[in-house]
Amino acid sequence: MDFNDTKDEANFRDEVNSWLSANADKKEHAKDIYRPAEMSGEGESGESSALKDAKAWQAKKYDAGWACLHWPKDYGGRDATPMERVIWGQEESKFKVPGGFFEIGQGMAGPVLMLYATEEQKKRYLPPMAKGEEIWCQLFSEPGAGSDLAGIKTKAELDGDTWTINGQKVWTSGAHYSDYGIIVTRSDFSAPKHKGLTYFFLDMKSPGVEVRPIKQITGGANFNEVYFTDVKIPDSQRLGEIGDGWKVSLTTLMNERLAVGDASGVDFQEIFELAKDQDFNGDTAISNGAVREKLADWYCEQSGLKYTKMRNISALSQGSTPGPEASITKIVSANKLQDIANYGMDLMDNASIARDEETAIFQGSLLGAPLIRIAGGTDEVLKNIIAEQVLGMPQDIRVDKNVPFNEIPTGSKN
Amino acid sequence: MNFNFSEDQLLMKEEVKKLLDKENSVKRNRNVLEGEEKFDKELWNQLVQMGLTATTIPEEYGGIGMGFLELCVIAEELGRGIAPVPFSSSVYLATTAILNSSNEDIKKEFLPKLASGEIIGTFAHSEKTTFPSESGISVAAKSGKITGKKVAVPDGDIANFALVSATSGKNKIGLYLVDLSADGVEIDSLETFDPSRSHADISFKNTPAQELSADAWEDIEKLLDQSAVLFAFEQVGGAEAAMNQAKDYAMGRYAFGRAIASFQAIKHKVADMYISLQLARSNCYYGAWALSNDAPELPTAAATARVSATKAFYECSKENIQTHGGMGATWEFDCHLFYRRARLLSSNIGSQGIWKDKLITSLEKSNSPT
Q: Which candidate from B272, B275, B357 shows the least CB-CB separation from A292?
């Protein structure tokens, strides 16, 4: 049992490191983050300069062969092994580099295109996606279809070889800066709900696409509503067969769950440091037994996730398939984030209400956590997945299975 | 990197599991729980014959010279089978304490007999009703003899000898080896919460004792850290068994016209068990790494493994009963055997509160917890 690189892994890590060292600044602390040179405030101007920097960094990586490492070279990748991809990620995270705009395209749209697009389309769309020149979003959820994704109602009608799309999507991350999107629609309302879906990709600049930001409880607006009014999509941009959109969607979602990792924000280190500094009944908080017990629980969760990830990486390094253990990551980390944020504010007592340098990260995490517990599969959906797909327990009995979609009650009745 | 057990170690794990399955270890637990015997001698002898008591003992002392990683996989299987044997006392604790010691005479005398199963050892540490701090030891050693009382010593009425913590003068705590058949030893078997594992109060009155070390508090802390990893593996084995029982029962139990395993209330319960189990297992692997490498991270890694495994076994064993409904709370069903064992293992070598405190103390010392 060891954490050592094999010889090949060590060589690859050296190669990665020497390129990164020559092209980026190393973090001084683990929690150092990249800040765009021009970014002073928040909001749109901050986002646009962050986007500009992220595109520049992605292009630099692409030109040197360090973008989408595990993709085939023909599509802009490096033909790297899964372990090499992990090593790249580990090393890049030690440098102050921008990111956060390309994950949905490269993590979800890319793999679907690789499976279902024509060779010509792959050559056209994948390299610019890898380079960060073109950004992609994912148009899945609707106001009446969240966890029950197959309940979508956005309508697709075929006339000749052109489809017309009408309806509304919601919770679309990055739709406002995306060039393309992957979308699942309903092409047959009289078929049972999983059978009448069809999947496409489309140009987000198409006439009839309207993007409206959603202001979240954090005050930020990373998500959007997207409205479709008579939007035309050529049949050549269909991915999978007509009526087979559910199967294609599942491929995408599988990749989403791999892409969503630890929740960012406060973690053990922050609450540990706070407890050392904070007064509590005339002593430091950390000398209180109740506080120590809480801290120990969170440390165990953080450590458990860290070594669960190590078990997976080890499987990759040994050339075997990682087990299903990582399915616990988002549930544990999002709930831990919420509870640590809440407890941190509790330790700071009434001073926690004021927004200052010390409270900001706890406040931000407390407000950000609810959406993390929901996005990319709610806690409840993820527990169903663990029970059904990992442990082999039966699916819930579904009253809407085998019923024509247009006879199923949907949405909110209040 | 290879953050996993080797193929040989996994093979060994499988062999131990096969033996415990074949011997119906869970049924044997019930027999000891309900009967007069203090442990299952037949099963113990089989484990001895398989060489398990000799695992970490070097060949020069009559052992087979394997390491702690092998002991970890054995521990997990003993936990899965809730085996009614004094393995943790004799192997995790007594054998490890002697291996750690530099007293060559004691090693030569005791290790071969521990390896061959000829004798059984234990560690007598608790006094009064709580796990002792350094200032809480009242058993006293003087001129090669000890006097005082240890309480609820695991396997205290089975073991041939005990390693006893005692004050050695000058405010130091020493560690002493005491033959439990010697003069001045009084052993009172206890009625316990989990009679599948025997416990006894032991009083010493001018009892002859061999000194392992007169200044042993750090050695004792280390011994506890080492054994905590092994206890944690045992707890993870038990937790996984309890989770699987809950799942299997839910799949076969029908109510409201369907398997109860198809209700989200049950699925989410079992998913929660799985989550706590995986966190504990991953922490245990890290503990195993630290233990087998005698790494400076051992105090943190051991406490982390111990705390999360204690939590996992408690959660899995109690929700296993809940999933079974009323039948889970009957004497006849096996659920309570795991529930009792979970509680027992949580108390042996110190409670959850003690280990959480140890964890934070060790993080404060190392000052680089992540």
A: B357
